[in-house]
Amino acid sequence: VERLQAVEALACSADMGDPTLDALVRIAAYTFGVPAAIIGLMKADHQVFVARVGVDVSEMARQESLCHTVVAAPQAPLVIEDLSADPRWATHPLVQGEPRLRMYAGAALRNADGLVVGTLALLDTQAAAPWTAAQHRTLQDLAVVASRTLQDGQHLRELARQAQVDSLTGLRQAAWFQDILEAELAHAMRTGEPFTGTRT
């Protein structure tokens, strides 16, 4: 329950979009020379990709995700150089069918309390040579950076929320209403819709 609550808290922050996470998956893919990398948060029944490169979908059912194994055993990165040669994964739909994955590498992401909330994963349609200790360490280091970036985003979102609420009355600050007013006015000017009345 605690892990899922931590995931939901991070997911709310990550839904806003974070260019740092987007940059991080690009760096990860480039560093390891693979076409795809994701930062995913593992919810109860599905995995949400909060940053991705080379992957078209934004989420995946938990039972179909390769990352659930990392969440269950997060002590060290999981690297499978050739999924088709591994009896645990050879019949997996993503290996047998499109995109015919061959290499998977994932490291756990943790929140400030040490709870495992997701993974940083690398994917390739080509089998990989045996990984070195340095590669394992680099993937782990990138996962630490991703974890901290998620935590920082959550912290900033909480600070912004607190700044919008008057600590004495619990009501929204005038600045919040001003932001909403300006956003609605900009929408009306952009679309030509009336500023007053109900917008559907």
Q: What does the model show?
A:
The chain has 200 residues and is of the alpha+beta class. It has 6 helices and 6 strands, in the order H-H-E-E-E-H-E-H-E-E-H-H. It has helices at 2-14, 19-32, 68-72, 93-96, 133-164, 174-191; strands at residues 36-42, 46-53, 59-61, 78-80, 103-110, 116-124. It has a 6-stranded antiparallel sheet. Helix 1 packs across helix 5 (133-164).
Question: Which secondary structure elements does this structure contain, and how are they paired or packed?
Answer:
Blueprint: H1 2-14, H2 19-32, E1 36-42, E2 46-53, E3 59-61, H3 68-72, E4 78-80, H4 93-96, E5 103-110, E6 116-124, H5 133-164, H6 174-191
In DSSP terms, counting alpha (H) and pi (I) runs of 4 or more, how many helices?
6
Q: Give the C-alpha Rg.
A: 20 Å
Whole-number mean pLDDT: 86
Order of helices and strands: HHEEEHEHEEHH
Which secondary-structure class do the elements indicate?
Answer: alpha+beta
Strand count, sense and barrel status of the largest sheet are: 6 strands, antiparallel
Strand percent estimate: 15-25%
In total, how many beta strands?
Answer: 6
Distance between the termini: 37 Å
The poorly predicted ranges are none
Helicity range: 40-55%
- The global form is elongated
Strand order of the largest sheet: 3-2-1-6-5-4
